[in-house]
Write a structure and sequence with these properties.
Aminopeptidase, globular, single chain, 8 strands, alpha+beta
């Protein structure tokens, strides 16, 4: 598909996640909020992280041209989170998602990176509708999705998952000029 490229915001670099990010992905996927709200991805060591990146992230990047982006703070080049567009099993369409290390939450990085990802989804990848899923307990995620312009649509269940999830959506026609 298209060649992977970096994107920038005022404070952040969004770089396609690579095998070099394995230590960071291992840390992120084992934070308490990831485990609570997203789930255990069975990534317990560096080899697991490399396998996860290779099978879940790089294969989608190669197939669709987009996937997960590692969010790097420009001021010190620290990896602080991830944000991306996902082809999620059991969900028709493209799903936007984000997660940050606890030390970098509540600083506007989620909004800043997700606004950029949403914009490139519509403008560069010509996605017509972006969806998002979140648990009923994840109030912070719901608030960010609404701030991004996504609207609650319905409660859904993904295959092999008993949890009922909130589905949010926005289509490119509702996209603002600056969004």
């Amino acid at each position: 598909m298209s060649e992977s490229k970096n994107f920038e915001t005022e404070r952040l670099i969004l770089r396609p996640t690579s095998l070099d990010d394995a230590p960071f992905i291992l840390e992120l996927l084992n934070t308490p909020k990831w485990l609570q709200f997203i789930g255990d991805r069975k990534v317990y060591n560096l080899e697991d992280a490399k396998k996860y990146i290779s099978e879940k992230i790089i294969t989608q990047q190669e197939r669709l041209g987009f996937s997960n982006y590692t969010v790097i703070r420009k001021s010190d080049q620290v990896k602080i989170g991830s944000c991306g567009l996902y082809d999620r099993e059991g969900l028709e369409g493209v799903d936007i998602g984000f997660a940050f290390l606890p030390a970098y939450e509540k600083m506007g990085y989620g909004y800043e990176s997700a606004m950029k990802i949403k914009a490139i989804g519509f403008d560069i990848f010509k996605i017509k509708k972006i969806k998002a899923i979140t648990s009923k307990q994840n109030i912070a995620s719901q608030s960010l999705l609404e701030k991004l312009g996504l609207k609650f649509s319905e409660m859904i269940r993904l295959p092999n998952d008993e949890e009922e999830l909130m589905l949010y959506e926005i289509d490119s026609l509702r996209q603002t000029v600056d969004g």
